[in-house]
Automatic annotation (TrEMBL), chain A:
Lineage: Bacteria, Bacillati, Actinomycetota, Actinomycetes, Micromonosporales
PROSITE patterns: 2FE2S_FER_1, 2FE2S_FER_2
Entry GO MF terms: 2 iron, 2 sulfur cluster binding; metal ion binding; oxidoreductase activity, acting on the aldehyde or oxo group of donors
Protein name (Swiss-Prot/TrEMBL): Oxidoreductase
Origin species: Virgisporangium aliadipatigenens
SUPFAM superfamilies recorded: 2Fe-2S ferredoxin-like (SSF54292), CO dehydrogenase ISP C-domain like (SSF47741)
Keyword Metal-binding annotated: yes
Pathway: Alkaloid degradation; nicotine degradation
UniProt cross-references to InterPro entries, sorted A to Z: 2Fe-2S-bd, 2Fe-2S-bd_dom_sf, 2Fe-2S_ferredoxin-like_sf, 2Fe-2S_ferredoxin-type, 2Fe2S_fd_BS, Aldehyde_Oxdr_Iron-Sulfur, Beta-grasp_dom_sf
Signal sequence annotation: none
2Fe-2S ferredoxin-type domain residues: 9-85
Keyword field: 2Fe-2S, Iron, Iron-sulfur, Metal-binding, Oxidoreductase
Pfam family, one: Fer2
UniProtKB/TrEMBL annotation, chain B:
Protein name as it appears in the record: Dehydrogenase
GO MF annotations in UniProt: iron ion binding; oxidoreductase activity
InterPro entries: Ald_Oxase/Xan_DH_a/b, Ald_Oxase/Xan_DH_a/b_sf, Ald_Oxase/xanthine_DH-like, AldOxase/xan_DH_MoCoBD1, AldOxase/xan_DH_MoCoBD2, AldOxase/xan_DH_Mopterin-bd_sf
Residue stretches making up the Aldehyde oxidase/xanthine dehydrogenase a/b hammerhead domain: 44-158
Keywords: Molybdenum, Oxidoreductase
Domain of life where this protein originates: Bacteria
Pfam families assigned to the protein according to its UniProt record, in alphabetical order: Ald_Xan_dh_C, MoCoBD_1, MoCoBD_2
PANTHER family per the UniProt record, alphabetical: ALDEHYDE OXIDASE 1-RELATED, XANTHINE DEHYDROGENASE
Keyword set includes Mitochondrion: no
Presence of the UniProt keyword Glycoprotein in the record: no
Length: 175, 765
């Protein structure tokens, strides 16, 4: 993708367990690297400004808005996308729970919701508090429905599948 | 209404009713809470959305929006943009191909555009944010960067941008979706003046935006032979093809539109400028082009819900019976094809001795408004159902009892009989589930710590609509499976799942032996997914195709078969084949009937005119119940409980249908408490054009929503079904406003109900 006058860089990212490299325009976001160069289109583009959460992926197990991270910032790091969590033949248990609880309608925000759900379980296990956490000194945070709703609020859903999403996350990771 | 229409309607009333669909009570597959058949694809990132399409040699487009609301482009200089790295071409009105006016979305035309002028055909600017140039480049990064280098100078004219300031210029449209813009009976003003109890208030609602999470995207490719293939996030495949073919001067058979998945539509995934711009850019550059709108473009280049101002005046006698009902409303629109029909609920919900129900329009210089989930009904019901609640308080009646006393025997304005109407039963069941008897009865009288707690209720309502003109193909394969095909749309409603279920029921197959193929105009033509009409439209068409298929299958019956010589009316689909209706021993499986062939197929067409809703009043109803908690210190409102009891005919899939109702309630709560498109009246520019600044409900705003379906079939509809996509939003904002009043004693009549209005009472316009 090199064009005269454009600054480029080579990035190497470990994506879903595989090392992948690309020579990119340095303005490329991690989102566009995943979608347009690596053809991992399960991660969605919803606003390109960190407002909707549709592009959420895991970078070194931390949930990250891939539209707000430049691809060069992901160089040398470990990225997990929805495709890396499970596939139709071997679904991740949160993916199964999303189907069971009807946690999506159009399915467009779903990849981001599921990646957020997986990551928030790690955050709670590590004792990272949210604004509704009562005991800030606790080693781990119990994921009540209130905690899940708060922690999932960066992932917008316009079809209104919120009840099913929270039920799915709660079934798999809830207290 | 024309003479011809009157004559047709008079004739229709004398026509016999269609036979009741024998599957109205079937329960083998229909009625089961089946999980979505597209679930595994959607939870693994495997579903194919438009922006995921990648073609060899594909280029990327970025749009340059206008900076003025009305005027002309004096000069446009693309020199720097054209010379920027990676840029392939820049399209402006100087070099755009000639395009005809796209065909508008109307009841009779076959298009689905909301803008009646093709883009880049002249130097005229019609609204702020209209695209004035397209930059095409080798990458999205290059296109976006170069778009900033296009230099445009304007001669601005005065623009009509403030709905609130232009009220005195409101005039009647020619009609409201075929209905007269105003209907009256009796001396309503006199009855109002003489009524024992009167409510006379003005309610207002702002511009709303659909804010589907998927941004509009189009990929266009021209073949060397001059044919056009468009991948587009559309909820109206066939109409999109028609609009684009007409605009480009192509025969429809030279245009293919593909869309397997739509990331939310809600009425706005139709034809706007961007599809034409993408097609034009592909033609000018000779490359396949992908154009995905940016979020701010989606706010400014596609329309939302029109703003409204509605006076509702109710006059009741001492017993609470309506003697007068006035609904004088105004909406801010661009074309009469999308009038935001706020006056519709008042035409059908309650009996009143006298009435005047109508709506005027103010024409604005903004991007044309579109249909948004229950257009008109949702915000019209905010006014009507708030006023009913105000009247109940004034009379001193339970608002449900007030509604019961005004329950009409026949349609209150059409005079037609109801095909079914279970509004009061919905209230009864919903009230029981919610615990309405234990509600707070004194406004401002219930407190839980810092929270003021209140309860509210309101009616849901939505017309039954069936779109004529669709076709469905059913193919039975050699292994006895069925593949049902139609150019239908799934934007999250569960189309694929529900169609598999209803076809499986019709054909006597288990659901894992039925597939539904959709999302491409090479399949049999199917109507738009709008008006909550797609399911009923497809059910009746599948029934027609199944009848055609019987004929085809029976022709293949060999002489030795037990079915030999039988006519279509003699047989039924049962157990993976055909069977004699009265003698189960006379049967043949699909495998036997298909025999050596690869497959057998038949195409069925929907009955053309939906005559049933000219003869009967056909609507869905429902009752919403909500509990709010209002912070006594900050005025912040939280919705803490919700029960929706819905009378929408037979439910094919209670799991996906409940999700539709929940989604509609949540969008309604958004309109009640937070959603507001803010327009700068000086520039006509929508200023909060982002996912962060146009607030929609997030997880923390959404409580558990309890959905009850009465599940009573409509005897006049295929399988007894009604649509369920839109009814759930109607009445929601009123239920919230009524609960806020109950919690605080403050009546807010101006959406959204923000804390400042609760504190100061300033929303009590």
């Amino acid at each position: 993708m090199a064009h005269e006058g454009i600054s480029t860089a080579e990035v190497t990212v470990r994506v879903n367990g595989q090392s992948r490299s690309a020579d990119i325009d340095t303005r490329t976001s991690l989102l566009d690297l995943l979608r347009d160069r690596f053809r991992l289109t399960g991660t969605k583009w919803g606003c390109n400004q960190g407002g909707c959460g549709a592009c959420t992926v895991l970078v070194d197990d931390q949930r990250t808005l891939s539209c707000l991270m430049l691809a060069v910032q992901a160089d040398g790091r470990e990225v997990t996308t929805i495709e890396g969590l499970g596939d139709a033949a071997a679904l991740h248990r949160l993916q199964e729970a999303f189907i069971a609880h009807d946690g999506f309608q159009c399915g467009y925000c779903t990849a981001g919701q599921i990646c957020s759900g997986v990551a928030l379980a790690g955050e709670a296990a590590a004792g990272v508090p949210s604004v509704v956490t009562q005991d800030l000194r606790a080693e781990t945070v119990e994921l009540s429905v209130e905690e899940i709703r708060e922690r999932m609020s960066g992932n917008l859903c316009r079809c209104g599948a919120h009840n099913g999403i929270v039920a799915a996350v709660s079934e798999v990771y809830g207290s | 209404m024309s003479m011809m229409q009157r004559a047709t309607e008079a004739l229709n009333r004398t026509l016999p009713d269609r036979d009741v669909d024998p599957l109205t009570t079937a329960r083998r597959v229909v009625g089961q809470p089946v999980s979505r058949v597209d679930g595994p694809a959607k939870v693994t990132g495997g579903a194919a959305f438009t922006a995921d399409v990648d073609l060899p040699g594909m280029a990327f487009a970025s749009l340059v929006p206008s900076r003025i609301a009305r005027g002309r482009i004096r000069r446009i200089d693309v020199t720097r943009a054209a010379a920027a790295p990676g840029v392939i071409g820049v399209v402006t009105h100087d070099n755009a191909p000639r395009m005809d006016t796209p065909v508008l979305m109307t009841l009779t035309a076959k298009g689905c555009a909301f803008i009646d002028v093709a883009p880049l055909q002249d130097d005229v600017v019609r609204w702020n944010g209209q695209a004035v140039a397209v930059v095409v480049a080798e990458s999205q990064e290059c296109a976006d960067a170069a778009a900033h280098l296009v230099h445009v100078e304007y001669d601005a004219d005065a623009a009509r941008t403030s709905f609130g300031d232009l009220q005195s210029e409101a005039v009647f449209p020619a009609d409201v979706l075929g209905e007269p813009p105003e209907i009256t009976r009796g001396d309503v003003d006199g009855a109002l003046a003489g009524a024992a109890f009167v409510v006379d208030e003005v309610y207002s609602t702002p511009q709303h935006h659909h804010m589907a999470i998927e941004l509009h995207a189009t990929v266009a490719r021209w073949t060397p032979e001059g044919k056009l293939h468009v991948w587009d996030s559309t909820q109206a495949l066939v109409r999109t093809r028609h609009s684009l073919a007409h605009a480009m001067g192509l025969p429809e058979e030279d245009v293919t539109v593909t869309c397997r998945a739509v990331g939310g539509g809600f009425g706005n995934k139709t034809v706007w400028d961007h599809q034409l711009l993408c097609v034009a850019a592909a033609r000018v550059t000779g490359r396949p082009v992908r154009l995905a709108l940016r979020r701010k473009d989606a706010f400014r280049m596609t329309g939302g819900r029109a703003p409204s101002r509605q006076r509702v005046a109710l006059g009741a006698d001492a017993a609470g019976r309506l003697r007068a009902l006035v609904h004088d409303s105004v909406t801010g629109i661009v074309h009469e094809n999308s009038p935001e029909q706020v006056s519709v609920p008042a035409r059908h919900l309650y009996a009143a001795d006298t009435y005047r129900i109508g709506q005027k329009k103010v024409v604005l210089d903004v991007v044309p408004n579109a249909s948004m989930r229950a257009p008109g009904d949702s915000i019209g019901s905010f006014a009507l159902e708030s006023a009913i609640d105000e009247l109940a308080s004034r009379v001193g009646l339970d608002p449900i009892e007030l509604r019961r006393r005004n329950e009409p025997a026949v349609d209150p304005t059409d005079g037609t009989r109801f095909s079914k109407r279970h509004l009061i039963e919905a209230y009864r069941r919903g009230a029981e589930r919610f615990g309405w008897q234990e509600r707070n009865r004194v406004p401002g009288g219930q407190r839980d710590g810092r929270w003021l707690v209140g309860h509210g209720t309101a009616s849901a309502f939505y017309p039954y609509i069936r779109m004529p003109g669709g076709k469905v193909r059913i193919r039975i394969t050699a292994d006895g499976r069925a593949i049902v095909s139609a150019a239908a749309n799934d934007m999250g409603m569960g189309t694929e799942t529900v169609q598999v279920q209803q076809a499986a029921e019709r054909l006597g197959l288990p659901i894992d032996r039925v597939g539904f193929e959709f999302g491409d105009t090479t399949l049999p033509e199917s109507p738009i997914a709008a008006g909550s009409a797609q399911t009923a439209s497809l059910v009746i068409t599948v029934a027609a195709a199944a009848e055609e298929l019987k004929k085809v299958l029976l022709k293949r019956v060999p002489r030795r078969s037990a079915l030999y010589g039988l006519k279509p009316n003699d047989v039924v689909y049962r157990d993976g084949g055909l069977r004699h209706a009265g003698d189960p021993s006379r049967a043949a499986t699909f495998e036997e009937l298909v025999g050596e062939a690869e497959y057998v197929e038949a195409v069925g067409s929907s009955p053309m005119l939906p005559l049933e809703f000219m003869k009967y009043s056909m609507h869905g109803y429902g009752a919403h119940f909500c509990e709010v908690r209002v912070d006594a210190v900050t005025g912040e409102t939280r919705v803490s409980r919700w029960v929706a009891c819905i009378d929408a005919g037979r439910i094919i899939n209670p799991k996906t249908a409940a999700s539709q109702i929940r989604g509609a309630v949540i969008m309604g709560v958004g309109s009640a408490l937070m959603e507001e498109g803010l327009v700068d009246r000086r520039t006509g520019r929508t200023v909060n054009a982002s996912a962060a600044e146009y607030h929609v409900p997030v997880h923390a705003d959404v409580c558990d929503i309890d959905v009850i379906f009465l599940d009573l079939p409509d005897p006049l509809t295929p399988m007894g079904v009604h649509g369920v996509g839109e009814i759930g939003i109607v009445g929601v904002a009123a239920a919230v406003a009524n609960a806020v009043y109950n919690a605080t004693g403050v009546r807010v009549r101006d959406l959204p109900i923000t804390l400042d209005k609760i504190f100061t009472g300033s929303g009590a316009s």
